[in-house]
Amino acid sequence: MPMPSWWKEAIIYQVYPRSFKDCNEDGIGDLRGVLEQLEYIRSLGVDAIYLNPIYPSSGHDNGYDITDFCAVDPVFGTIGQLEELIRRLHAMGMRLIQDLVINHTSDEHEWFKQAQTSRDNPYYNYYIWWPAENGKPVNRRGFFDPACEAWRYNTATDSWYLHYFSPHQPDLNWDNPVMRQDIYRILRWWLEKGIDGLRFDALTFISKDKHWPEMTEEILKDKYQGDWGHFYANGPCLHDFLREMHEEVMAHYPDAVAIAEASGVGTDRVLDFVADDRKELNLLYHFDGMSIGFLPDGFKRLDPAGYSRREWKEVYSRWSDVFRQRGWGPIYLGNHDQARMVSRWGDDSPESAKLLFTFLLTMRATPFIFQGDELGMTNIYFTRIEEYKDIETRQMYGIAEDKEGFLADQRIVARDNSRTPFQWDASPQACFTTAKPWIRVNKNYKTLNREAEEKDPNSVLNYVRRLIRLRKENPVLTYGDYRLLLPEHPALYVYQRRLGKDLVTVVLNFSAEEQVYPEVLQGRILCNNYENREARLKPWQAVVIDG
Ligand code: TEU
Ligand code: CA
What we know:
27% of the residues lie in helices and 14% in strands. It is of the alpha/beta class. The strands form 4 sheets. Strands 9-8-7-3-2-1-11-10 form an 8-stranded parallel β-sheet. The model has no long low-confidence stretch (mean pLDDT 97). The site of 1-O-alpha-D-glucopyranosyl-D-fructose has 12 residues, from loops.
């Protein structure tokens, strides 16, 4: 049995404030909207909120380009409202995890505004530069750059600055100890306000190899599975920085959880980050699950052959087994960077949404629920590039040769699919706002909304509430061992959770077809997304059995 921790037993609800609830009629969600809906969030039975960035931002990447780390963007509200959110969550016995971006800043951050004026400016070395006299910078990919470049020339300093994302997001130079101390000061400033943890954005990218090894598509393929994220997550000083950040900051707030968004880290390395004795991080979330079904070119193109449920079972079983003895992990099926989980991994049906939640809430990991998924909210299925707001979609469209094919895939995988306004009820704009929303509300809000689902005992919403209660009432679902059955079955995902005498079997028909599994008739039903239970499992049927 692992050492108990609140963040191992918690169920965490991700709030993307921009799309949650708008209370000042500007079409953009805000903190007042979150405060107003705290009772709803509590009614789910979750234990903590993970809040996407609310800091002043230049707005190129929905808040992931920060211009002031120690403030709240007026578009979201005030620091006082954030402090009220912390207070009220604590009073409810809940917690707050904030999202902080410390791999890069906005190019409108004071540090960068100074740095770009002169090589002698004290802030120049807060960033990563390639002096023009050294010739053309080495090949690196910028994920959101119009030409996929990761270097942008700056005239005043006659040098190029590095940006792994857009040119408006210059990467910070973590080799600079003065810059690191400034970051640690910022972390303490927030932790002193009583927040209960931090989700660190793109954290595995913070160490850069300053020997600037050449990177070609061939080397990338040979050494990093063709994934720039794998290469970027292999910087030489990454663990030194994480250990220092732990020693300097997180160790002084032992009840605060440190979570890394960790593109490029697999099960072969994860314990180097999260094993207790490493004194680096508590949780790290991977991309292996979200990468299922993509072609390996890193441009979010779907494999026309689709993906196999065997692969799904292998990935999630591997990410459960790696923590069998030490360490712990989160589990998620959607977030602000992914499409709606019921569209990406189900078939938009409520049954498939319930099945996905049964999986999410019975695995040996800390479940993260993205706002709206508990209603079964679906993709919005934009058809034209003009409908998209997301820098990633617009940038990739600009460089895509097959633009029609790219748009067809984006209907399934685009990040904007999960960023559409929360659907509260059937009133105009789903009661998200009385103004024009920053992004269109999904047309299905008239029937797919919170108010309608509150009234339906069989709604996805009420099913999720029951599942959350089931997980809370049965420690076997949190700490119990995990054992996969039928690994080769192409559609059935069956596994057991065992803790002492307690044994629970989870039977999931991850398909739109009926599947025969007579063993499902044994044992007392703890949860079932259909009325009845027969040896022929219905499409997307999920059954949790005691024994
Ligand atoms: O996402 C980082 C991220 O998704 C990369 O690690 C990923 O490998 C890359 O996008 C290639 O697909 C975080 C935030 O979650 C995201 O919303 C931001 O856009 C991004 O960082 C930049 O801050
Ligand atoms: Ca607003």
